[in-house]
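pinned: reference chain
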Amino acid sequence: NLVQDTSYYRYPTMSKNQKIRMQAFHHAFPELTIQIMELVAENNRVFAYVTYSGIQRGAFLGIIPTGKPILIRQFAIFSIQNGRISHITEMDNEYSVMEQIGYVLLK
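pinned: its structure tokens
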């Protein structure tokens, strides 16, 4: 079974199930673009720096659609066992995203 650790778990709408989480992202950001910026592998681990960009057209973490663009930067470490991903640890810039859609003012 896949174990996943992410900062988004504190939000009830963000499931630990990767498929459900990506469906939630695609609902909120229908034109979501995912770009792999860097990928490094060593032994049984893979480090990924990925960006997600899009315009919020659906509810996201309980926030109604704003029509504002977002850029999510994510760092992830994938652990591989028996040729399969066994563990994912993710770190996202979620507060920056909340600022980008106007939900949080950080200034």
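why pinned: The mean pLDDT is 83. The beta strands are 3-5, 33-42, 45-55, 69-81, 84-92.
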